[in-house]
Design brief:
This protein is α/β, with parallel strands linked by helices. 39% of the residues lie in helices and 17% in strands. The protein has 5 helices and 5 strands; from the N terminus they run βαβαβαβαβα. The chain has a 5-stranded parallel beta sheet with strand order 2-1-3-4-5, sandwiched between helices. It is globular, with a radius of gyration of 14 Å.
Length: 146
């Protein structure tokens, strides 16, 4: 298992307060150095990624954890925007959603999502999914440079 020499920045785009808290708590116990930023909807995520308004000094994320069912701008729209932008498209995006709908899965991969995970209902399983994201994306994957 490799250890990144630099702090890894994760953007969590999640409107569910309970899911966001669980993800934050799980990642805060990580053996990897990471900085987690939380935004609650697709518009706020867009402002973060384009460094607008209160996010003028936002860092470029190394990884985006994205819910599909978001207010204002949904995850599909945000994913399409990210993957169509030359400056953003190399940021890995992991969909973490309650939807196991085949059309959502297919559309996400057509939009070039890097990984699609369905949120489990049980607490222990949910924590295991978040840990698996951490173990794979932070321990084994070579992330693109800024």
């Amino acid at each position: 298992m490799k250890i990144h020499a630099r702090l890894l920045t994760i953007l969590l785009v999640e409107d569910s307060k309970s899911d966001a808290v669980l993800i934050q708590e799980t990642l805060s116990e990580s053996k990897f150095l990471n900085e987690l930023h939380l935004v609650r909807d697709g518009v706020e995520a867009t402002d973060f990624l384009y460094k607008r308004g209160k996010y003028a000094n936002a860092p470029r994320p190394d990884l985006i954890l994205l819910d599909l069912n978001l207010p204002k701008k949904n995850g599909r729209e945000l994913l399409a925007q990210i993957k169509a932008d030359e400056k953003l498209k190399t940021i890995p995006v992991v969909i973490l959603t309650t939807s196991s709908n085949e059309a959502d899965i297919l559309k996400s991969y057509q939009l070039h999502v890097n990984c699609y995970l369905v949120k489990p209902v049980g607490l222990e399983q949910f924590v295991e999914v978040v840990k698996s994201i951490e173990n794979f994306w932070l321990a084994f994957v070579e992330l693109p440079p800024e």
